[in-house]
Specification:
The chain has 370 residues and is mainly α. The protein has one domain. 71% of the residues lie in helices and 0% in strands. The chain is globular.
């Protein structure tokens, strides 16, 4: 989840000195449009949770995040390999921990405190504490897949999927980085195979395991990884803009027309199509600017999207306990601004201080955050 700067001058000299590296993807640049994509994705997810009848396909914001994660993390790792000649796994995991864990701990602690004050109807104290512990080790995806829902921390299932990806993918990439073209093909092949398996096996293994475990998220993650290997000059500027418009239009249509309710069994594979549309959107934006997607308020919101995603469902659960007779509109009118406010405080006082400490591990010299 990062914006990155252009390839350092020293790395360009190294590419000239080593022809085998010169063929690899070029330097990375800051793409503020991707923060705009994050903002729209988190808005879709929040809208779905607060009033799914209005934003029926809002859950499709999750595969958008997965595509972005695969793309940006792979790009950062490749940039690091070009700069220092290898992928520093210890530095990578340290950066991930400093980026993600402080806010997660703050939200989990906050959930335990607030739920003790306002109550937690329908969830036992033991169940809530169990979910909190499982969330802190990034395994809530398996708990939710088994049917154990607390509402307070349910969205952290996707953080579990991403963290499991972060644990495995850098190791695989560091072993295969010398064969980047072949790795890109493997990513696409894995995406296609797992998408087909998901369609075939979902009725057999059940909707919950197919959706919430990493099995159902291979397609968007691998598509994102594959994009990081693709050269930016493959498309003309006009073709890239057409790709942005096509991918964005497909996602917008899906957001409001997906035949879904809040039951995962009703999702019916729309998330796989959304992943493909997201990949088209992200690759198009990486090749051509798009003024609307770098609109300052969107970029501002995108940079706080992690905190908003973490806290919005916990705020909703708290309000449901405090205001059991409130309508969906009333809950949204209170909960969404409150979630943005809490995420802003988290970004300022929890996330940013740890992001500054992360610079000592920034071997790939990223700009922004990942």
């Amino acid at each position: 989840m990062a914006c990155v700067e252009q390839q350092p001058r020293g790395a360009r000299r190294a590419a000239i000195a080593a022809p085998e590296r010169a063929a690899r993807p070029g330097g990375w640049r800051n793409v503020p449009e991707l923060d705009g994509v994050r903002a729209l994705a988190v808005a879709a997810v929040v809208g779905f949770h607060y009033d799914y009848a209005l934003v029926r396909g809002g859950y499709l914001g999750v595969p958008v995040f997965f595509v972005l994660s695969g793309y940006l993390i792979t790009g950062l790792l490749l940039a690091e390999e070009r700069r220092i000649g290898r992928i520093d796994l210890r530095a990578f995991y340290a950066r991930r921990a400093l980026r993600l864990y402080p806010a997660l701990v703050a939200v989990v602690v906050g959930v335990l405190v607030v739920s003790a004050v306002v109550g937690h109807r329908g969830v036992s104290s033991a169940g809530l504490w169990t979910t909190a512990g499982v969330t802190l080790v990034y395994a809530n995806d398996f708990l939710v897949a088994a049917g154990h829902s607390t509402r307070w921390l349910d969205p952290t299932w996707s953080l579990g999927v991403e963290e499991q990806f972060y644990l495995l993918w850098p190791i695989l990439l560091s072993l295969a980085v010398a064969r980047t073209v072949r790795v890109a093909r493997w990513c696409i092949a894995a995406a296609v195979v797992f998408a087909a398996l998901d369609a075939v096996l979902r009725p057999v293994i059940g909707a919950l395991p197919a959706y919430f475990t990493p099995f159902g998220s291979v397609l968007p993650l691998m598509l994102g990884c594959a994009l990081a290997f693709m050269r930016r000059d493959l498309l003309s500027r006009a073709a890239a803009r057409a790709l942005v418009l096509a991918g964005g239009a497909a996602l917008i249509v899906a957001l409001f027309t997906a035949a879904a309710d809040q039951s995962v069994a009703s999702f019916d594979g729309w998330e796989q199509g959304a992943a493909i549309a997201s990949a088209a959107l992200v690759y198009g934006l990486a090749n051509a600017g798009f003024a609307l997607m770098r609109w300052a308020p969107l970029v501002w919101l995108g940079r706080r999207s992690y905190g908003i995603y973490l806290v919005h469902h916990a705020v909703l659960a708290a309000l449901e306990n405090l205001l059991p007779a409130a309508s969906a509109g009333e809950l949204a009118a209170i909960g969404i601004p409150l979630s943005v406010a809490l995420a802003t405080l988290s970004y300022r006082y929890v996330e940013t201080p740890f992001l500054r400490r992360r610079r000592r591990f920034a071997r790939a010299a990223p700009a922004g955050y990942a």
